[in-house]
Every structure is written in structure tokens, then in C-alpha cells.
Amino acid sequence: MIGLGTYAFFWQHSDRVPEPLDLIGAFEQTRALGVDLFQVCDYAPLLELSDAEIGDAARAASDLGLTIELGTKGIAADHLARFLRLADAFDAHLVRSMVFGPDFRPTLAEAEELLARSIRDYEAAGVTLALETYEQLPTAELVGLVERVGSDRLGICLDPANVVAALELPRDTIDACAALTRNVHAKDSAFARQDGWVGFTYTGTPMGEGLGEYPYLFEQIRPRERGINEIVEHWLPWQGDPETTVRTEREWTATALEYLRSMS
User: Fold this and answer.
1) Which domain holds residue 234?
2) GO molecular-function annotation terms (predicted)?
3) Buried b or exposed e, range 86-98, using 16+ CB within 10 angstroms
4) Among 132, 150, 186, 253, which has the minimal tally of Cβ within 10 Å of its Cβ?
5) Ordered alpha helix ranges (H), 44-92
6) What distance in Å separates the CA atoms of residue 149 and residue 111, rounded to the nearest whole number?
7) pLDDT per residue over 105-157, tens digit each?
């Protein structure tokens, strides 16, 4: 299933725009685009909502016919337990996270112990925990960690754009993670020369216009055959003013949906 995530609404959620979009507003825009899936990923206000507000958001998603996934950072036991409770509130069956949280960077041995303990509750709840590929942890170490824990409810959220910052090749990451992939972040990116030709900037582009390996990912992962959801994200730089930035963000979303829907 093709979905949108909060990173597709990054600037629309931001306080840099006059009227930031709240979570229910993002749900409504997602539904208006004919999309049935939304991933609430790294959305800080989620942890500030009261139980009543969470209930309101969950009901809004349900009323709109949206499937919800959640996303966070970190694998501390209490943090994963909190997101499992949120998954229950939203009837979400996938939580994306990263091994390193904002305040805790476990060793691989610590990470294995934490995951082995927490994953049992996820198994019992029927919720998958998908750990994202990113530059702070080599792909080989992430794959090894997931394999050692050895649970059908623990897998990888594949985002090959992230690993370029660690000088890893996207195709190598796709190949290494193929069997363990449970979720995909779909975006495009490219390098551009900085002003004065001193160095490069690595940033997002409209889907299909950058150096991303999505056709290769699509072929190797076969997400739709395997029931792996594809979540649209953007790395859109600020465009100089709120109106241009929001308009461009919406255009990139439309482009990404058209691109993904054209694939078969």
C-alpha cells in the first residue's frame, strides 16, 4: 500500500508557516489525495497529546478510513512500550524506529538485549517493529542485529537515501536488507554543487528526478507482492517563503504519488 508520512508534511507542520497543519489536518489531506495509509513518524507533538486527544486523532483516522503506522527514534524498553500502547490506540500494526534515540546510543550488545526483551510484547500484540537504515549505524551491523534477535515481528524500514551520508551505496543497502525489509520510505535525492563550486549539497528532489534507486528497490524488494507499505517522504529545502515552500511540498507529494502509482 502507498502511504504518506509526516515527513511529506514537514513544512506544513512547521511553525515557520502561518497556520501549521495539525495531525488530523494531515489525515484529511491524505484522504483527499486518495491515499489510505498514513505514517505518524518522528512527530514530536504526538507524545504531548492527552489520552483524549489521542482518542480524537485515532477516531478521525478511522472515520476517514485511514490505516495508521507510527514512527519514533530509540529502542529503550519504556519508550518502545509507550509506542506499543499508542499502536493499540491507533490500531497500528507497524512501528518504525531507529537504534539510536536522542538521548541513548546503546552498544550492539545492549541493543540486542533491549530488542530481545521488547519484541516479545510486540509479537503478542501483532505489531511489527521496523528499524530504519541510516548513516549512524552501518547497514551490515543493523542487518546482523535484526538477524540475531530473530523475530518475525522485527525487521527493517528501508531508506537507502540515508546511508549515502556514511558512504554506503544505496544498491548495496537494498540488497543487504531485501529479505528483512518490512517497510519502505519512498523519496528521491541528489547532489548539487554549492555556490562557488566548493563542495556539494545532498538534498531531496521530486520523485524520479534524482539519483534514487527506487526502480531497483521496487524490483528487488517487490513491496506490493510482499505486502510492504511504501511511505512517501521528502527532503525539501526551505524555498524562501512559506507560500512557495508549502506549494512545492504539495507538488512533490503529488509527483511522488503519481510516480509510485505508475509502477507495477
Assistant:
1) 2-261
2) isomerase activity
3) bbeebebbbbbbb
4) 150
5) 51-64, 77-90
6) 10
7) 999 999 999 999 999 999 999 999 999 999 999 999 999 999 999 999 999 99
What local confidence, expressed as pLDDT, does residue 191 receive?
A: 94
Q: Could you give the number of structural domains in the chain?
A: 1
Place of cell 554543487: 193
Per-residue b/e over 123-153, b at no fewer than 16 CB within 10 Å? eeeebbbbbbbbeebebeebbebbeebebeb
Rounded to whole angstroms, how far apart are CA atoms 37 and 1?
Answer: 7
C-alpha cell at 29: 489531506
Instruction: State the DSSP H helix or E strand holding residue 95, giving kind and residue range, or none if neither.
Output: strand 94-97
DSSP letters, 181-210, are: EEEEEE-EEEEEEPGGG-SEEEEEESTTSS
What are the angstrom distances between the C-alpha of 160 and each of 2, 82, 152? Answer: 17, 28, 22
Per DSSP, 85 falls in state H
- Specify the CATH number for the domain of residue 30: 3.20.20.150
Q: Write down the pTM of the prediction.
A: 0.97
